[in-house]
Amino acid sequence: MSTRTLSAALVWFIFPVALVLAQQTPPASPIPAASQSQVDCTGFITTSHVPTEIIVLDGANNDFESSVRQFTPSESIYLYSRGNPEFIVGEQFSLLRPAKELFRTTRYSGEHWTVHTLGKPYEDVGRVQVTHLTPEGAVAKVSFTCGPIYPGDIAVPYVPRTIPDYVPAKLDRFPLPNGKIQGTIAAARNNFASLAMGDIVYLNFGEKNGARVGQLYRVYYSLPSLGRWALFGYPSEPRETVGEVVVLSTQEKSSVAIIVNCTRDLNVGYGVELE
């Protein structure tokens, strides 16, 4: 066999192999489902007791003692405790605020009742670190905020929140129900109605239903069973997968999740199913 013939044969052998290899997409690598600031500002809905003994009493540079004075990073605030615990210099606290007023405007029929059945909603406000001790409490420096800090905000010991990984993948638009955990997007952070990538949502099931941090749920939309074709005896249309969420934290009856994938805007009230 001549050199030219051998070279041509090798080309015809290697080309299909190279084409197949080129068509194979390498598996996606896991990426964080959320940033640290997103995780620290999710808020939550809980049936558990949230201690309210320590509050933000006031802060520096509030000469007029305004009840709506906003404190921001690097400013100092004053922590007061009704139970007089022993503060420790360097100790960190998370600041919370009841969010019941946030959900008085409903986005779908029955939302107010749904949120009520899941527990009491709280907003994450920020994080502070104790710098000085006083006979009445402590002085703390604001190290991180999700929004304005006000006198009266609740302070609880800071507990770091984990950030689960997420493996991006192409959505299966029309999968059949798989019989796994199902629920709905009961509400959204800041009471948003229209949702997109990175938005925080609250699911109407929690630890007692098997929800765990890091779980991936598909978000689906299905037309009501009494759609336009149901009047003529046709079956309901198939449900459509429109996004995915990853669980960031769980409570007894509810879960906090972040939208990591979507084909269009999502709405509160959409269904979710464990993948």
> How far apart, in Å, are the first and last alpha carbons?
57 Å
Shape: elongated
Return residue spans where pLDDT drops below 50 for at least 5 consecutive residues: 6-15
- Average residue-wise pLDDT: 85
| Helix and strand composition category | mainly beta
Q: Could you tell me the radius of gyration in angstroms?
A: 26 Å
Q: Per DSSP, what share of the residues sits in E-state strands of 2 or more residues?
A: 35-45%
Oligomeric status: single chain
In total, the number of strands is 17
Output the number of helix runs: 3
> In total, how many domains does the architecture comprise?
2
Q: Which percent range fits the helix content?
A: 10-25%
The succession of helices and strands, N to C, reads HEHEEEEHEEEEEEEEEEEE
Detail the topology: elements first, then pairings:
Elements (H helix, E strand, L loop, with lengths): L2 H21 L7 E2 L3 H4 L4 E3 L7 E6 L16 E6 L10 E7 L12 H8 L1 E14 L3 E9 L8 E4 L7 E2 L15 E7 L5 E2 L4 E4 L12 E6 L18 E11 L4 E8 L3 E2 L3 E4 L1
Antiparallel strand pairs: 1-9, 2-6, 3-4, 4-7, 5-6, 5-8, 6-7, 10-12, 10-17, 11-16, 12-15, 13-14, 13-17, 14-15
Describe this entry's structure for a reader:
The chain has helices spanning 3-23, 36-39, 111-118, and strands at 31-32, 44-46, 54-59, 76-81, 92-98, 120-133, 137-145, 154-157, 165-166, 182-188, 194-195, 200-203, 216-221, 240-250, 255-262, 266-267, 271-274. It has 275 residues and is mainly beta. It folds into two domains: 44-157; 163-274, no CATH class. The strands form four sheets. Strands 2, 3, 4, 5, 6, 7 and 8 form a seven-stranded antiparallel β-sheet that branches. A six-stranded antiparallel β-barrel has the order 10-12-15-14-13-17. Strands 1-9 form a two-stranded antiparallel ribbon. The protein is elongated and about 75 Å long.
